[in-house]
Amino acid sequence: MIAFRAFFAISPFCRIELAGADLRPYAPERIYVGERDDMAPAAACVQMAKFLDSEGGDVSVKVYPGAEHGFDYVPPALVTPPMDSEALHPHGEDFTYPLRPYYVPFADNLAACSFRITSISQKTTQSQVSRCVRKGVHTASDPAAAYSMQDDLEGSLARFLSGGQRVLQ
Questions:
Q1: What is the C-alpha separation between 77 and 80, in angstroms, rounded?
Q2: Distance of CA 44 to the CA centre of its chain
Q3: How do residues 101-110 score in pLDDT, each as one tens digit?
Q4: Which residues of 41-66 are buried (b: 16+ CB within 10 A; e: fewer)?
Q5: Strands, DSSP E only, in the chain?
């Protein structure tokens, strides 16, 4: 069995109360989240990381100032010249995902939800979700935050890899 050397999450759902079982992570965790993320609030991730650290885990959160949900997306049209023509969006180089903050009124948003779990494989029920789900999320790409996150992620990967392996760019 090959064990994970580390776990990395970008804008994860962190409003989870870990109760009852030994849920300490067996590998380091690194979480990257936007300060203004109203779908995956940064404060919830910071709180969860503190709890997991107090239980003996190695969990850290990097919060990107001013960044919203989707901050990690950089449209191909911003890469000049395209770094990889094979990686362009299917609509072509001129297609740009909205760069300015925008609101998606129909998106399910669980930011107001909090779930208590006793097992990492425990599922939530529809009744738990329907009590707290709301509609709408703000999102915006943030190239500066995205490139900063890529640098942070690359640095973390380099620290966790060993034995002559290197991070591919």
A1: 7
A2: 12
A3: 778 888 899 8
A4: bbebbbebbeebeeeebebbbbbbee
A5: 7-10, 16-18, 29-34, 59-64, 102-109, 115-117, 134-139
- What tokens does 42 get? 């940064």
* Closest CA relative to residue 132, chosen from 107, 105, 112, 109: 112
Pairing of strands 102-109, 134-139: antiparallel
SS3 content of the chain, % helix, strand, coil (to 5): 25, 20, 55
Count Cβ atoms below 10 Å from residue 151 Cβ, excluding itself: 10
Q: Is the pLDDT of residue 80 over 70?
A: no
Q: pTM for this structure?
A: 0.77
Bridge partners (DSSP) of residue 116 are 17
Q: What is the pLDDT of residue 169?
A: 44
